[in-house]
Amino acid sequence: MDIQFLPGVGPKRADLLKKELAVGTVGELLRLYPFRYIDRSSFVRISEARPDMAYIQIKARVVRVDIIEKKRLSVWISDGTGEIELVFFKGIKWVAEKLKPGSEFIFFGKPTAFNGRINMVHPEIDAVPSGAVASDSSSMTGVYASTEKLKNGGITGKVMNKLMEAALERGLQYIEESMPEYLMRQYGLVPLHFAIRNIHFPKDMASLEKARYRLKFEELFYLQLSLLKQKYVRSRADKGIRMPLVGKAFNACYDSLPFPLTGAQKRVITEIRDDMKSGRQMNRLLQGDVGSGKTMVAVLTALIAIGNGYQACIMAPTEVLAQQHFKNIQKFLAPTGVRSALLTGSSKASERREVHNGLEDGSIGIIVGTHALIEDNVVFRNLGLAIIDEQHRFGVEQRSKLWRKAASEAPPHVLVMTATPIPRTLAMTLYGDLDVSVIDELPPGRKPVQTIHATEGKRPALYRFLRDQIALGRQIFIVYPLINETEKLDYQSLEAGAEEIMQKFPFPEYKTAVVHGKQLNEVKKFNMDAFAAGRADILVATSVIEVGVDVPNASVMVIESAERFGLSQLHQLRGRVGRGCEKSYCVLMTGQKMSKESRHRIELMCATENGFELAEEDMKMRGPGDLEGTQQSGLPISLNIASLAKDGLILNTARDCADAVLREDPTLNADRNQLLRKELRKEKYQIKDYSKIS
Ligand code: ADP
Ligand code: MG
Which of 1, 272, 438, 482 has the fewest CB neighbours in a 10 Å radius? Predict the structure, then answer.
């Protein structure tokens, strides 16, 4: 039913609802849930009102009404415990007429502090219900998302409640149940009609809880069902290259490792081995905090491909990172005799030709590179494995180009590595169709990094500390935010900072290298190498060093304007120190004034070094949509009521449920699953496949 035929709507409001809330039908309106509730039965005493309270409700009598310079209406009210001022700037005449001194109302609004007193600006005004409270109506009222335009168009909170009432009366009967009976019974879900009725007008707290659970469950269930179904279909359809051997190269590398693998590394390699020999295509996400030893796993995985007669590529998002990877893997490859090569945008034409030839004739076993790897003129003899680092920086199209370079009989195995810790619930949703391996253990011998927050006044002390560290033979990172590549200001602060450092740490006693994104690649590389080789004591850089550089001798990471960085970026940067055996420090420099969120981020950084904990907190603070590292990929669907941050338990249950359904009936052909099939066809669940490279 079109929304405009609902009493109180009409074409104009219908238009508004469509534009502002994307609601066009009564059914859609009913699926727009309140984001909070007001308990209309509980009142706050005026003497107890505080400015830090959220919305409160006061039942009070009007004492005095003053119109001040025709611009402002001041209304004093009293409930016997105290007086409070209500302030109105709009609709003055109407309000003044309504609020007759001596009459009693219910006022709902946010208490704010003003001139040392508390007042409420533009509270909602309700009549006190006459007699007993209407018996069957609930005391809880839903509050819906709104916009300025909606309010100006007359669709206030109260109007919204009225619309919902009308929609329930006329439209609910046409909404069909969306969960199969047998699953509702098995998972204790209330029927959809009950849920919708109670989500808008909760009969009581218990009914509201049941309604919420059912609606969240449904949403997460279909999301998982859709993702898992893709996975089931794929694992049956996509043949993978069977790689039954471990191979000589793997063993040669393994036997000469300078350290034993951590338990987590061993477990992950076993998981990967099982995938690769299964005859199905591997699609695995490897998560591991900075420094957890993912490179090692990547090398051994590549060597399995080699051992079975295939080539492997390792793709990195930046030139610096590709170089770093290439350099790092050399020492592990030395005992294997496998030929590797590097291919990036800045490879010279002659090198390029040589690499192209080596890939085509198969003499190069492992190729490390950037986007240059997916150019059309790069041809592999028999690519069997693609390892993609920091995958969120690669677009789907770019990955699909890589895919097409596969050995013809079957697609290559895919291992995606990320150091951005993604909370489990989010990983399940973003990569629901990928298998996930986690390295949740750091190599032994890593010392915790002490994280310190300091403001400008502490700068002299900071410099003394840095001199002491340099005297001990350590190296220092100093990082400036570069939020926006084109942001002039960011470069200015970096340049000013670098100048000050060179003044306070004069040459030749101290050597400072500077690296930023505007430098030529050769200059960048020269400076980076100088620091990596220990020829410079201090590296002043923009956040370009965020990915990559491994300088075990660096013991201090100073992050300037730390309040401007996101939590996961701060964590990545901190991961650059603490790699050697020396005690390491991370100093977060901020201004005196910080937003509440910034302060919270800094506090969290000082409190924990666990990337997953930080990611969980980050998600709670900002909501998963904003989670760093996921902006590009985005959430596959927008959730209506469930929250990935808060509903992890429901998500787990919903996932198990979806998994159980598909295990018994992978194609959803059974009679009892016809409803599932139908629901899945809805646009909402048409999830883009983010992982499949096809
Ligand atoms: P990531 O890529 O996950 O950030 P790396 O693979 O760069 O981490 O490893 C970080 C450092 O730890 C490297 O210097 C690496 O050689 C070392 N390392 C890796 N695995 C182990 C291990 N099992 N024991 C000791 N050191 C290790
Ligand atoms: Mg790494």
Answer: 1
Cα 426 to middle of ligand 2, angstroms = 22
Burial of 58 (0-12, 13-18, 19+ CB in 10 A): buried
- Best of 295, 323, 332, 417 for a ligand 1 pocket test (most atoms within 8 Å of beta carbon): 295
Q: Is 281 in the pocket of ligand 1 (CB under 6 A)?
A: no
Q: How far is CA 274 from CA 148, 279, 301, 567, in A?
A: 56, 9, 11, 35
DSSP state of 154: T
Q: Does residue 265 line the site of ligand 1, with CB under 6 A?
A: yes
Tens of pLDDT, residues 270-288: 999 999 999 888 888 898 8
Give the closest residue (by CA) to ligand 1 atom 20. 293
Indicate whether residue 576 lines ligand 1 (CB < 6 A).
no
| Lookup: tokens for 173 | 């009967």
User: Would you tell me how many other CB atoms lie within 10 Å of the CB of residue 330?
Assistant: 11
Q: Which helix (H) or strand (E) holds 556?
A: strand 554-559
Condensed to tens digits (0 to 9), the pLDDT of residues 450-498 reads 999 999 999 999 999 999 999 999 999 999 887 555 566 667 788 888 9
**For residue 307, how far is its CA from the centre of ligand 1 (angstroms)?**
23
Residue having the nearest C-alpha atom to atom 27 of ligand 1: 443
Q: Which of 418, 134, 136, 415 is nearest to 281 (CA)?
A: 415
What whole-number distance in Å separates Cα of residue 256 and Cα of residue 432? 37
Helix (H, G, I), strand (E, B) or coil at 49: coil
CA-nearest residue for atom 16, ligand 1, is: 293
Query: Which has the higher per-residue pLDDT, 102 or 115?
Result: 102
Say whether 449-608 and 248-278+292-418 share the same fold.
yes
Which tokens in the block code for residue 444? 């032994």
CA of 567 to the centre of ligand 2 (A): 19
8 A C-beta contact, residue 611 and residue 290: yes
Residue 261, ligand 1, Cβ within 6 A: yes
- Smallest Cα–Cα separation from 312: which of 416, 413, 417, 383? 383
Is there a contact between 542 and 483 (Cβ–Cβ < 8 Å)? no
Which CATH number does the domain 449-608 belong to among 2.40.110.10, 3.40.50.300, 3.40.630.30, 3.40.50.720? Answer: 3.40.50.300
Give yes or no for residue 296 CB within 6 A of ligand 1.
yes
Question: Ligand 1 pocket, 82 CB below 6 A?
Answer: no
Q: Is 57 in the pocket of ligand 1 (CB under 6 A)?
A: no
Q: Where are the domains of the chain?
A: 3-173, 248-278+292-418, 449-608
Which fold does the domain 3-173 belong to in CATH?
OB fold (Dihydrolipoamide Acetyltransferase, E2P) (2.40.50)
Closest C-alpha to 183, from 685, 663, 681, 654: 654
Domain 248-278+292-418, CATH among 3.40.50.300, 3.40.50.620, 3.30.70.240, 3.30.70.20: 3.40.50.300
Atom of ligand 1 nearest to the CA of 296: 6
Amino acid 668 reads L
Per DSSP, the three-state class of 646 is coil
Q: Any idea what DSSP says for residue 445?
A: T
Q: Kindly tell me if the per-residue pLDDT of 629 is higher than 60.
A: no
Our answer on whether the CB atom of 443 is closer than 6 Å to any ligand 1 atom is: yes
Which of 38-52, 543-557, 584-598, 652-666 is least confident?
Answer: 543-557
Q: What is the pLDDT of residues 314-365, one digit of tens each?
A: 998 878 778 888 988 998 999 999 999 999 988 899 999 999 999 999 999 9
Report the distance separating Cα 555 and Cα 578, nearest Å: 6
Distance between Cα 392 and ligand 2 center (Å): 15
